[in-house]
Amino acid sequence: MKTLAAAVLFACAVTLPAAAAEDHTPKHGGVVVETKAGDLELVAKPELIVIHVSDHGKPMKLSSASGKVTVFSGNDKTEAPLALVGDKLEAKGSFKLGAGTKVLAEVSLNGKPAVAARFTLK
User: Fold this and answer.
1) How many alpha carbons lie under 13 Å from residue 110 in its C-beta half-sphere?
2) Cβ(121)–Cβ(95) below 8 Å
3) Cβ pair 32, 50 in contact under 8 A
């Protein structure tokens, strides 16, 4: 019985750091989507959409980035280009937002091929 308990404790100790490294919680109050390029966190305001990029919970250094967002709100569809501003991507415009609004972001990061991320606002 002691051997089984020790084995369980060891297994927990080994897997907890790995689980902690997979931190996909929002750091900026937005919605996070995991992609092969990293985690994208979308923070949406009626005049500005910001996408923060991280790798396992740590901000990713961006030397180059571009893309576009498409906002789907009811029957309305609005597109806007994304530009690298500091360590994040920003799209400026006039966006109709609300719970259930869907946002498609297509981004290319650090010269890698574009990835698509689908967000649903809460």
Assistant:
1) 9
2) no
3) no
Q: How crowded is residue 50: how many other Cβ atoms within 10 Å of its Cβ?
A: 17
What is the C-alpha to C-alpha distance for residues 92 and 81, in angstroms, rounded to an integer? 8
* pTM summary value: 0.79
- Residue 39's Cβ-side half-sphere holds a number of Cα atoms within 13 Å equal to 18
d(CA 11, CA 111): 39
Enumerate residues 6+ apart whose C-beta is below 8 A from 23.
56, 57
Give the pLDDT confidence of 33-84 residue by residue, as tens digits: 999 989 999 999 999 999 999 987 889 999 999 999 999 999 999 999 999 9
State the CB neighbour count (10 A cutoff) for residue 47. 9
d(CA 37, CA 55) in angstroms, rounded, equals 8
